Q: What sequence folds into this?
């Protein structure tokens, strides 16, 4: 985003642009030549922060629309967990929750492998969400929406890679906010 666009953008537009930036960085660091699990985790967490903050920067009408989107509430709950309880994507993190992530590294003979990818272990993710629901009864509706989104993911032919889910959720939020 150039300086002129920066000055003309709304706070929501900036948050959406930054969320997209962190998705791009996530993909950049998920394979050769810049494969870095540490960076992937950092960019996922940053993405969650920027995406969830769209809610706080929105007007009441937009907030109401965002509350109706299971995928947004899923991202918001993950941000809350990752910010206050546990680094969800980090291996061996000493947080309150188990790590519901899997890292898959492509292996090949000859040219470099295509990438490493992060996926949710959906059963462990449900366990994390249930534990969070028990601890945060004030967020029951958001956790229920998150569980519906997990069920949506489970119903797909393939478990989508984390970056694909990040893009999907961002697209939903952009549609709701009319962001670009």
A:
């Amino acid at each position: 985003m150039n300086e002129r666009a920066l000055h003309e953008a709304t706070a929501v537009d900036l948050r959406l642009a930054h969320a997209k930036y962190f998705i791009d960085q996530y993909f950049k660091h998920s394979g050769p030549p810049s494969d870095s699990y540490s960076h992937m985790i950092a960019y996922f967490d940053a993405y969650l922060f920027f995406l969830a903050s769209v809610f706080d920067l929105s007007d009441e009408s937009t907030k109401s629309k965002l509350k109706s989107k299971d995928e947004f509430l899923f991202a918001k709950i993950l941000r809350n967990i990752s910010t206050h309880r546990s680094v969800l994507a980090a291996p061996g993190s000493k947080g309150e929750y188990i790590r519901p992530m899997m890292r898959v590294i492509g292996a090949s003979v000859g040219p470099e492998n295509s990438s490493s990818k992060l996926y949710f272990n959906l059963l462990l993710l449900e366990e994390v969400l249930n534990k969070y629901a028990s601890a945060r009864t004030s967020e029951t509706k958001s956790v229920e929406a998150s569980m519906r989104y997990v069920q949506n993911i489970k119903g797909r032919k393939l478990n989508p890679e984390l970056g694909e889910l990040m893009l999907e959720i961002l697209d939903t939020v952009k549609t709701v906010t009319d962001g670009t």
